[in-house]
Every structure is written in C-alpha cells, then in structure tokens.
Amino acid sequence: NNGDFQVKVFGKKHKCNAQWKVQRASTAFLTNRYKELIVANPFIKLNYIQSVVKMKLGININISKARRTKLKVLKEMEIDVIEELAPGFPRLFQRFYTCFDALRRGFLVGCRPILGLDGCYLKGIVKRELLTTVARDANNQMFPLAWCVVEVESTTSWTWFLKILKRDIGTPDGYGWTFLSDQQN
Predict the structure, then answer these.
(1) What is the pTM of this model?
(2) What angle do CA 85, 80, 74 make, to 5 degrees?
C-alpha cells in the first residue's frame, strides 16, 4: 500500500533481439584490436577481417570499415618503416637513375636504334614516378635499358633522365636515335 513492490517471479529467458551492428566499433578501436593480425599478413582479405571481428566480438562491420581499418594499420607500418630507416632525418628525396653496364652494352650491340619512353606512378611507401626507356632486340622482344625514379613527371625530370641516358649510350654514327613516347609534347 505504501508504493513498494516485490518481485515474485523472475523469468530467465531473454527475448530481446540481438543487435549485431555496434556504432562503438570505430576504426580506431578495430585498428588497435587487430593491428597484430594485419601486420602479420598485410595482404589479408577484407572479408576475413569482417569474419574475425564477427567471430571474436560478435559484431558485424561493413566492408568499408574493414578497409579503413586495414589502411590505417598499413599507413602506420609505412611510417614505422620510414622512421626506422632514417631516424630523425628529414624525408628528402629527389631522384635516382639506373642503367646497368651489361644492359647498356647489350643495347649498343644487339638492339635497333629505337627507344621507347614511358612513365608510371609508383604506389606504396615512396609515391613517385618511374621513368623508363626500353628498346627492341633482334627477336623483337622488349629490352630494358635504363630507368629512374623522380619526384614528379615533368619536362625537367625527362630532360635530366635523357641527358644522363645520352651520356651512357653515346651518339651513334648515322641517323641517331629514334624515341617513341605516348606524350604529346
């Protein structure tokens, strides 16, 4: 009569629906929780990350959250590698050039005087441009001659690359070299 109540029966059966989508499972939380798994296998599939989270935590995450988690761990790995290789040094890179002597001699002896030039983007830790030059040998196969990595594909970078290439292969007697490129300039 005074407003108190007493529980006489307690049913132990839980009838609420389970909720498998939890907003608190943020990318930062998942990154901390599964960093070791992703570091051990950087090529891990996103659906495998989803299934591990479902199995261990009982939470469904969408594929984009698994992707963000994996990318965040991989980005942290890149920073760790760069810091390990050059601790305390500024990250300064301009360019480098490679032309092996055996390739140079092979080109001068057995290839046509036609050189193909191309550039492509590098992905990964060093995001730069790869400039290459290839020739065709007597069997009409591609013959790599030289390549370089530059900060950006520009007229300055190509000029630098071609000057060093000219120094390495020289100037032939007769007609000279023919360059093929997909560039319009």
Answers:
(1) 0.59
(2) 130
